[in-house]
Design a protein that fits this description.
The chain is α/β, with parallel strands linked by helices. Helices cover about 40% and strands about 15% of the residues. It folds into 2 domains: about 1-70, 2-Layer Sandwich (Double Stranded RNA Binding Domain); about 85-165, Winged helix-like DNA-binding domain superfamily/Winged helix DNA-binding domain (Arc Repressor Mutant, subunit A, Orthogonal Bundle). The strands form 2 sheets. It has a 4-stranded mixed beta sheet with strand order 3-2-1-4, with helices on both faces.
């Protein structure tokens, strides 16, 4: 059974889902992809969805609260991230981007030893079902512009500024 809950955050409500092995979804409740992501998880796990909680969702709520207070810079949660090998490689790379830092899609592709895969990297980032915890918000355009974030660019800006504030890095309008 996939358990779901709603988590209140400074950026609005988020929907979280977990199976017994770990967290499989954290998305803004107003996300256009939320319904299709939940349907895909039902198909992948061959299980229904039910409102409720489990240890993983409880830990996620606690760690998100600490993150939004500026007290948590890394998450220690069990994650379940079904996807292609390439997507998993991209998502694992996202977790390596230091708190309070940003990189470009080009830099992300280069770190994967695949500098020509900028669009594929962007698409994989967009397929990330676990917002904030797998920090796709830390990836920006090569020119420093905010691009592509399922939660909206205002939230992406807020998250980047929030992390810079608590990392001790200057929040001066530049992203690098």
């Amino acid at each position: 059974m996939i358990k779901t809950t709603v988590i209140e955050t400074p950026l609005g409500e988020m929907k979280a889902a977990a199976v017994k092995e770990g967290i499989c979804l954290l998305a803004f409740a107003d996300s256009q992809n939320l319904g299709s992501d939940l349907e895909e998880l039902e198909r992948i796990f061959g299980s229904g969805i039910r409102s409720g909680s489990n240890w993983h969702l409880w830990a996620l709520k606690r760690q998100l609260k600490e993150y939004f207070k500026g007290k948590r810079k890394e998450f220690s949660l069990k994650l379940v991230t079904p996807g292609t090998d390439f997507q998993k490689e991209v998502w694992n790379g996202l977790k390596e981007i230091p708190y309070g830092s940003t990189i470009s899609y080009q830099e992300q592709a280069e770190k994967l030893n695949n500098p020509g895969a900028i669009r594929a990297v962007g698409h994989a980032n967009g397929s990330n079902r676990i917002a904030i915890v797998i920090p796709c918000h830390r990836v920006i355009g090569a020119d420093g512009s905010l691009t592509g974030y399922g939660g909206g660019l205002e939230r992406k800006r807020w998250l980047i500024d929030h992390e810079k504030k608590y990392s001790g890095k200057p929040v001066d309008g530049t992203l690098f």
